[in-house]
Amino acid sequence: MLESHSSATDFYLIGFPGSPELRHILFATFFFFYSVTVMGNMVIIVIVCVDKRLQSPMYFFLGHLSVLEILITSVAVPLMLWGLLLPGMQAMSLTACSAQLYLYLSLGTSELVLIGAMAVDRYVAVCNPLRYNIIMDSHTCIWVVIVSWVFGFLFQIWPVYATFQLTFCKSNVIDHFLCDRGQLLKLSCDDSLFTEFILFLMAIFIIVGSLIPTIISYTYIISTILKIPSTSGRRKAFSTCASHFTFVVIGYGTCLFLYVKPKQTQALEYNRVVSLMVLVVTPFLNPFIFTLRNDKFIEAFRDVMKRCSLLSTPQGLAVS
Question: Would residue 265 be called left, alpha or beta, if left means φ above 0 and alpha means ψ between -120 and 50 degrees?
Fold first, then answer.
């Protein structure tokens, strides 16, 4: 316990309490998830960059989404894995804690904005295909990505600043595997009710605000698809949106459960599980959701693998 008028300069993360055997099992599980996440999303980024058939707005956005997924999971998971190998609690400085929270929230905000933009992209592709290349030209796509990144990092400056203006004098032990804002508010000895309310409104703004264009876009998309007379035409139109729609349901669902609640300090175990969904499960699923049923991507992947295998042979090396 800290002195009544002193604020913590270091924090200690409890992480995942349990026996060493349990922690080793969790380490192996999360390490597997993290490795697949990084490799899978890196494959998407490389294939999108090198294959000309994937030079379209949808895959351009998907490449940036994969970059965000790698960064989001890398903000917390490597530190969490290291903590599972330590016998006790994991120390973290105030600066490291604030940096982790800022990057986590900023990258998450950028991802939500980008997901909303991807929904609008699918709307234009399905509902206005003749003007798709005119509306979603390279200039527009680049600006959409720039705005999503810049907005995410600017939007979260005040929430993180306000959080660390509080005095943490109740304790310096965070019962979580990352520097969680809800736990920080719980450790504060200041009256944080107003701050919590403002943070709640800002979470509502970014999540619901980016969800509205997604809902509107898919309302028009479904309406347009249902008007297509042939079954094969409806199936083809829906296949262009199915992967993004699946990711929307998973991504927005976990974010709504995690952030849009009036009391940031409630339900510790609930927060830990949903945080794992955001940081581990969703980035892990991203490569599978967007590629397993995408024939165009699979074909591009096979062609790139063939070129790589040819270059690795003595004949290929001689030609190169």
Answer: alpha
In sequence order, the 6+-apart residues with CB closer than 8 A to the CB of 268 are 175, 176, 183
Joined together, the tokens standing for residue 198 give 């403002």
pTM: predicted TM-score of the whole model, two decimal places: 0.87
Name the pairing type of β-strands 173-174 and 90-93.
unpaired
Question: Which token pair is 40?
Answer: 């899978």
Separation of first and last alpha carbons in the chain: 66
**C-alpha 1: how far from chain center:** 35
Listed residue (218, 251, 216) closest to 107, CA to CA: 251
123-157: string of b/e by CB count within 10 Å (b at 16+)? bbbbbeeeebeeebeeeebeebbeebbebbbebbe
DSSP conformational letter for 280: I
| Beta-sheet pairing, 173-174 with 10-13 | parallel
Q: CA dihedral in degrees (3, 4, 10, 11; nearest 10)?
A: 110
Neighbours of 252 (CB within 10 A): 20
- How far, in Å, are 56, 295, 312 from residue 303 at the CA level? 18, 12, 14
Please state, as a whole number, how many other Cβ atoms lie within 10 Å of the Cβ of residue 225.
Answer: 19
* pLDDT digit string (tens) for the chain, length 320 residues: 444 444 667 888 888 887 888 889 999 999 999 999 999 999 999 999 988 888 889 999 999 999 999 999 999 999 999 988 887 788 889 899 999 999 999 999 999 999 999 999 999 988 888 899 999 999 999 999 999 999 999 999 999 999 898 888 877 888 888 898 888 888 888 887 888 888 888 888 888 888 899 999 989 988 888 888 887 777 777 777 778 888 888 877 777 766 655 454 455 667 778 888 889 988 998 888 888 777 788 888 888 888 877 766 655 545 44
